[in-house]
Design brief:
The complex is a heterodimer of chains A (about 375) and B (about 525).
Chain A lengths: L1 H40 L3 H10 L5 H26 L7 H16 L9 H27 L3 H21 L32 H19 L1 H11 L1 H6 L4 H25 L14 H11 L7 H21 L7 H13 L4 H14 L2 H9 L1
Chain B lengths: L3 E9 L5 E10 L4 E5 L6 H8 L7 E6 L2 E3 L4 H6 L2 E4 L11 H6 L5 E2 L2 E2 L1 H14 L15 H14 L4 E5 L7 H16 L3 E6 L2 H7 L2 E6 L2 E7 L5 H9 L17 E11 L5 E11 L3 E5 L6 H9 L6 E6 L2 E2 L5 H6 L2 E4 L3 H5 L6 H6 L9 E2 L2 E2 L1 H14 L16 H12 L6 E5 L7 H16 L3 E5 L3 H7 L2 E6 L2 E7 L6 H8 L7 H5 L4
Parallel strand pairs in B: 3-10, 3-11, 6-9, 9-10, 15-22, 15-23, 18-21, 21-22
Antiparallel strand pairs in B: 1-2, 1-4, 4-5, 7-8, 11-12, 13-14, 13-16, 16-17, 19-20, 23-24
Helix pairs in contact in B: 14-15
The chains are: A mainly alpha (about 375), B alpha/beta (about 525).
């Protein structure tokens, strides 16, 4: 018995190693391609790459940008991982972020926000609102057969524009015409963890979320059912698992994470207030994080660490050199392409070898013809 | 002189798997030559070599006495060899004639001559008695007809030798008979057929010569007339195989399942089960006989709670289960081995241990307060792997790493981990090799002997006759005949009722409908 579990463990580790190799290989290839592009377009390609890859940890301030980004990418990566594990392709995290942020804002700007309850209540309200917003496409799919991709994407626009509308009209702001609300009272803003950085309570929330999601997926019966539905919904039905319940609950739980991210944005050190379009398309980056992490909760923060580095490094490059941050889109695209395809290191080796092997054959054929 | 000869063919795959090891095959012109062997015996590899898909590491091919080498299928086709794969390569949305001519269309200039194509396809199908309407889209045809399109494709390309890879695996019994008629007419007109199979009765019926393969080697070549099913099976497996299972006398007085007036309407609004009354008693196997699609699968799904019913009642263990959920029915002692293990019976991406508890997530043994008891789940898996001798790396291996036979064992192990009261079985041994078939038959019979009521459906009449106590023939969702299984009940008798050619009267059925 012990030998069986032993071989399993070693095979599991070799699988993990293989995945890391794949992801690392994809990163390397994409960076090489990016470098070639930068080489062709920039006046100072080495400088640009230096900014992209080495400058971030050099100052506490920029280091803070990175870690803050990692925390947020982790949450959105987890939210996507949850629905992907159940094989639901809900794209609604962005909408949940806006709805969650709105809920947190209403709490923070109410009298409650000025009390000790500002932070916990803000988080709770955001998660609840996000959960409701995640539940909507789920129930629409279960009851009406509405495609969750379409409905969740549409709900994203609803949330963004609702937020836009409320900031302009209903919410209190410092002066007319400004597209932000009043600053939240200090009691409603996440405390800084490291001085003079954006690193705040959000980092702790992200770590807790990783553990909670991992536990829920791999240690609870709900999580096993979720994975079985994801693997084969017809089998789940045959086993007596209520797959619609699992599906809707996964989308709801993912929505709560999306809402949490909304609260982390507006109650965090970065803003401390609600402003229109605050999320800068970070929510959607969770798709990349989840895909590269293969929807494994424990892999999500690791992927977020790398990806956050590239994201913020690209910002530095953008500001300090002639290479725009958009170049990082090339990295993202190549990584997704490689990781989601059946690419493997062995495949690359084979491809390379075949290229070498076929090269001399025309000569050989010519020789044979003689 | 032999038409096609393979001499000392060896093939080792890059992974080091020796698929063929000095294989010899001699095919005479105008014969039906069967190649039989268990899964993994190397039949498919040999055929791929004959058809130019794989290249042998050693050995030679002789066609008409001259050595040949096929670098790819195109060269094999030009030499007059055609192959029909188990999984068809047709364009579903294209019509029959378009599929047949695709790749070598009759044309004038750049214009595709539709009328000529249709006429040619018609001519071939008439000549070889492979009647298919050339006009409809392939996806609208039943599997048997699609197979004919594949055969027509090869014939259109002037194949002299036709390789059929497990052609009967996807066919209903009467379609098999139609295929055999077509094969005989092909042979009568000078074609040669190589027939890959592992259902022995069919092999004996259709072939003239049989080559037996085992573990990548040819065991021997025999004349079909000179062997029996038993001796052939022994050659294939390398030891004596008893395909009969001994059944104990059991007490069959207690009714476990009572189905009354069951009607099922499918998604297209067709009535597929039309007022079915049947009972299954403890300690008996009731076999549902019928050409596929006559309501057997739907009946089993309705009893399992996987399909909504239009009318009728289902009672399990004296309780009305008509409106019960799957889990409630399982709690009454229902177990079910579904028709398609990969589509329905397993989550292939999940681990063996997870698959083995998937139906028991409501039990406190494995789940307490919503938390999984991983130790108990693993212990359960280890115990079942041992008891059902599932060949697997361990409980944490994913199911997709297993062979077909072992996957089916995972399903069987889960369903029969505990003695069920009512066991539903659909196609238990489809695509499973002889060794595993024997084991699965034994396991089902053991469940019966221990008092389970078993409702069995299978496309394999041999299996139904081997396992059942009573046999009910279904035609268009109705019982048209009922038999108590006796040694003199033959597949031919069942066949006439299966095709709806005759129906028993209520009196005739009475004895076997209790």
């Amino acid at each position: 018995m012990s030998s069986i579990s032993g071989t399993n463990k070693s095979s599991r580790w070799s699988a993990v190693r293989k995945e890391i190799g794949r992801a690392g290989g994809a990163l390397l290839i994409s960076l090489i391609v990016t470098f070639v592009i930068v080489l062709l377009t920039s006046k100072d390609p080495l400088g640009a790459f230096e900014q992209l890859l080495t400058q971030l940890p050099q100052k506490t301030r920029t280091f803070g940008y990175w870690i803050d980004d990692v925390a947020k990418l982790t949450i959105t990566g987890l939210a996507f991982s949850l629905v992907f594990q159940a094989r639901q392709f809900s794209m609604g995290v962005q909408g949940q972020v806006y709805i969650g942020a709105l809920a947190a804002t209403y709490v923070a700007l109410s009298p409650l926000g000025a009390s000790w309850a500002g932070i916990p209540l803000g988080i709770a309200a955001a998660m609840l609102a996000g959960a409701v917003y995640g539940f909507l496409p789920g129930i629409a799919k279960a009851k009406l057969g509405a495609n969750e991709i379409v409905s969740s994407l549409m709900l994203n626009y609803v949330a963004i524009e609702l937020c836009n509308f409320l900031v302009r009209t209903n919410l209190p702001k410092p002066q007319a015409g400004v597209l932000t609300t009043n600053d939240f009272p200090d009691s409603a803003v996440f405390p800084m963890l490291v001085d003079k950085t954006r690193i705040d309570l959000g980092l702790i929330l992200a770590i807790v979320a990783v553990l909670v999601v991992w536990f829920a997926v791999y240690r609870t019966s709900w999580g096993l059912k979720l994975r079985l539905v994801g693997h084969n919904a017809r089998f789940a039905e045959y086993s007596g698992i209520k797959s619609t319940f699992i599906m809707v609950s996964a989308m709801t739980a993912s929505g709560a994470l999306g809402g949490l991210l909304g609260s982390m944005f507006v109650q965090g050190q970065t803003y401390g207030k609600l402003t229109v379009l605050f999320e800068g398309n970070l929510a959607f980056e969770g798709i990349l994080v989840a895909i590269v992490a293969r929807s494994r909760p424990l892999a999500v923060p690791i992927v977020a660490l790398f990806y956050g580095y590239l994201r913020q490094g690209a910002q530095l490059m953008n500001i300090r050199t002639d290479v725009p941050a958009e170049v990082i889109g090339v990295v993202t695209a190549i990584i997704i392409l490689l990781v989601s395809s059946s690419y493997s290191l062995a495949f690359l080796k084979r491809l390379f070898r075949r290229g070498v092997a076929t090269a001399p054959t025309p000569a050989a054929a010519a020789g044979a013809a003689k | 002189m032999a038409l096609l000869e393979a001499i000392g063919i060896s093939k080792t795959y890059p992974g080091g798997v020796v698929a063929n090891d000095g294989v010899n095959l001699v095919v005479e012109s105008g014969e039906v030559h069967a190649v039989v062997g268990e899964n993994g015996a190397g039949k498919s590899t040999l055929m791929k070599i004959l058809f130019g898909i794989e290249q042998p590491n050693a050995g030679a091919l002789m066609l008409d006495g001259k050595p040949v080498r096929f670098a790819n299928p195109r060269e094999a086709i030009e030499a007059g060899i055609g192959m029909v794969f188990q999984h068809f390569s047709l364009v579903p949305s294209f019509s029959v004639y378009e599929n047949v001519v695709l790749g070598s269309e009759p044309r004038s200039g750049i214009r595709f001559e539709r009328h000529k194509a249709i006429a040619e396809v018609k001519a071939i199908s008439d000549r070889f008695r492979l009647s298919v309407d050339p006009m409809p889209a392939v996806m609208t045809l039943p599997v048997g007809q699609q197979q004919r399109v594949e055969i027509l494709k090869a014939l259109y390309r002037n194949a002299r030798i036709l390789i059929l890879d497990e052609p009967t695996a996807v066919l209903a019994p009467q379609e098999v008979q139609e295929l055999f008629v077509a094969i005989r007419s092909l042979v009568a007109q000078g074609k040669t057929v190589i027939f890959i199979a592992h259902k022995l009765p069919e092999v004996l019926e259709i072939s003239d010569t049989i080559t037996v393969m085992r573990q990548g080697k040819t065991v021997g070549q025999v004349k079909a007339k000179e062997v029996t099913e038993k001796s052939l099976a022994a050659m294939m497996v390398g030891r004596e195989v008893t395909l009969r299972v001994e059944r104990k006398a059991t007490d069959q007085s207690q009714r476990v399942a009572e189905i009354e007036g069951l009607r099922v309407v499918n998604a297209r609004g067709t009535e597929v089960v039309a007022g079915l009354d049947l009972n299954v008693h403890a300690g008996e196997v009731v076999g549902l006989v019928g050409v596929e699609g006559n309501g057997q699968a739907e009946t089993l799904e309705a009893v399992a709670g996987l399909r909504a019913i239009a009318a009728g009642t289902i009672r399990i263990a004296d309780k009305d289960a008509t409106a019960m959920s799957v889990l409630d029915r399982r709690a009454l002692g229902l177990a079910s081995i579904p028709e398609d293990r990969i589509a329905r019976g397993l989550a292939t991406g999940a681990t063996v241990a997870e698959n083995l508890v998937a139906t028991r997530l409501n039990e406190t043994r494995y789940v307490r307060n919503g938390l999984l008891d991983l130790k108990a789940i693993k212990a359960n898996a280890l115990q079942l792997i041992e008891r059902f001798s599932i060949r697997v790396g361990g409980p944490a291996s994913t199911v997709d790493t297993l062979s077909g036979g072992n996957m089916q064992k995972v399903v069987v192990a889960r369903e029969l981990a505990e003695q069920p009261k009512l066991l539903l079985v659909n196609q238990p041994t489809r695509g499973v090799d002889l060794g595993a078939t024997q084991f699965i038959w034994r396991t089902i019979t053991d469940a019966r002997d221990a008092g389970a009521a078993v409702l069995l459906s299978s496309a394999d009449l041999g299996e139904l006759l081997a396992l059942s106590d009573r046999l009910l023939v279904l035609y268009r969702g109705r019982i048209v005949a009922a038999f108590v299984n006796t040694p003199d009940l033959t597949p031919e008798t069942l066949g006439t009722y299966m095709l709806g050619l005759s129906t028993q009267t209520a009196d005739e059925m009475k004895a076997a409908l209790r």
